[in-house]
Amino acid sequence: MHTTRPHKTEQRSILITGANGFTGLHACHYFANAGYTVYALVRTPSKIPPHKNINERLCDLNDKQSIKKILHTIKPHFILHLAGQNSVPTSWSDPINTFESNVMCTAYLLDAIRTESNDSKTIIVGSVLQSNLSFPSSFQHPYALSKTIQTGLSGAYGSLFELDVIIANPSNLIGPGHSTGVCSLLAQKVARMEKGQEEKKLVVHNLLAKRNFLDVRDAVKAYGLLFSKGKTGEVYEIASEKMRSIGEITDILKQISTIDFEVHSLTEQQEITPMIYATAIKELGWAPAVPFDQSILEILNFQRKNIV
User: Mind giving me the DSSP string for 260-302?
Assistant: First the structure.
């Protein structure tokens, strides 16, 4: 069983799936700026900002022969698996596609690693929104079920075939970029209000609801640390260990907005939300660095620049 993997003498290379997604774009430029040769895997031609160390590769992970050919050619030192269906609402409307994207595509990738690049150190990015398969009623949505099966499959497959696989479970990631997360959606509405495109009223489901938010750039740095120090077969929670309410987000947006707007909550109910602890990754020397207020400001500025 692998525990650490020495770097090859040539420049380190990393394959990033879902490279044109919210986290993928941040990851591509983080590793490219760190000197890695980055192979950015996308299904269709994308608009990844150019960088001398980033090489775009077209590949649909549903095509298991295609990913095998890619890995046979590249044989990367590292693989960061970010591709998947990450929307909870979409998982309700299209659960089968969610399972295909999150479970089967991961299985195809792992099997391609087994046959074509079994010396690669791989991080499978799951989610803290998981539950226990022994208690079916504990699952709150199909997305959570798909991510639970994805990471369970990855850990077992890695063990069975002695692959260097690590599981990373991030919390709700926020930051500048195109995202369907609550912080980005609220900031987008505020940006539209500032431009006179919407009524100056922000409607939220529950101001008291709390979530663990982490800046996406801190998460990407955690993945980088796991490639160098993470142990094969381990599961690492990546979280800020601070719970923030939706009301805190709207308060910050009101403070930094150029306009005044009212906030209306459809309900105000306290939720029992378990704390997420990032003990294992912190023991490796990681700690979140981007302040929450700064993340929200950068999200709003991004939305201001991208409102049509």
Answer: --EEEEEE-----------HHHHTTT----S-HHHHHHHHHHH
